[in-house]
Amino acid sequence: MGKEETNRFPSLDSFYFSGKQNISDVIDLSDEDDDIKIINFIPNNTYFGTRKRNNNFEKGECSYSKGRRFVCKICLDTKTTRDAFYISGCNHAYCSDCVAKHIRSKLDDNIINIRCPFFLCKSGTLEAGVCRSILPTEDFKRWDKAVCEVLFNIREKFYCPFVDCSALLINDGTEAVKNLECPNCNRMLCGLCKIRSHEGFGCSEFKKLKRDDKGKDVILANIAEDMRWRQCPKCSDYVAKSGGCNIMTC
C-alpha cells in the first residue's frame, strides 16, 4: 500500500472524542481496497461511571455528636455535649467549668457537703471521686483531705445554724466552749447546743422561748444585767428596786 492509502486516515489527536462522528469519516469504506485496517488506541483519561468518593473521616469522630449542643444555665453559654457534666441524683447538667467553679466556691466557704448548683434541687449531690476529672489537682486534694478528716479524724462536726451560711464546723473535743465565732460568717453561736448565741440564757431555757421572742429577750436580758434588774420567778417579768424591802409580790 502506498502513501495515498496512509493519508486516508486523519490523526487521532484531531478527533479525540471531540464529538460524535460517523465511522465513514474515519475509515474509507469504498470498494477500491479490500484490505481491513485496524486502529488501536488507548484514551489518555477515561472515567467509567462516577468519580471515586473521597471519604476522609477522622477516627473516633461522629458527625451527629459534633452537632449536639446545650446552653449552660450558669454561664448561659452554648456548649457541646462533650463539655456537659451531669449531677448525680438529679437530671441537671452544666458545663464542666461552671461545676468546677461551684465546687471551689463551696470549699472556700469550708463546705464539703456540696449539692447541685440549682438552688431548688434537693436530690443532686457532688462527690470528690466523681468530680476528679473536671477539678484542678489542688482543689481535688483539698476536698478529699477535708472529707477524710471528717470521716476518720474528727470526733464531732456540725454546721453553722445561720441559713445563709451553713458552713461545716469542727469540734476537736478538747473542751466544751459555749461562745463560738463562725469563721465563715463571723457570727456568734453556742458551741454546746449548736444554735446561735443566747448570752444570758441557758441552753434549755433559751429553747423554751418562742421563736419570735428569742431575739428580743436576749437584748432585754443584756439590759437587765447592766441595770441589775431582777426577774420574777413566776411571770418572768423584770423589776427594778427603787426602795423599800427586798420582798416582791407578783
From TrEMBL:
One of its GO terms (biological process) is protein ubiquitination. The keyword Transferase applies. It comes from the Eukaryota. Its cofactor is Zn(2+). Keywords: Metal-binding, Repeat, Transferase, Ubl conjugation pathway, Zinc, Zinc-finger. GO terms for molecular function: ubiquitin protein ligase activity; zinc ion binding. SUPFAM superfamilies: RING/U-box. Residues 68-250, 72-117 form the RING-type domain. The keyword Protein biosynthesis does not apply. Gene3D superfamilies: 1.20.120.1750, Zinc/RING finger domain, C3HC4 (zinc finger). Might act as an E3 ubiquitin-protein ligase, or as part of E3 complex, which accepts ubiquitin from specific E2 ubiquitin-conjugating enzymes and then transfers it to substrates. Belongs to the RBR family. Ariadne subfamily. This is RBR-type E3 ubiquitin transferase. It comes from Trifolium medium.
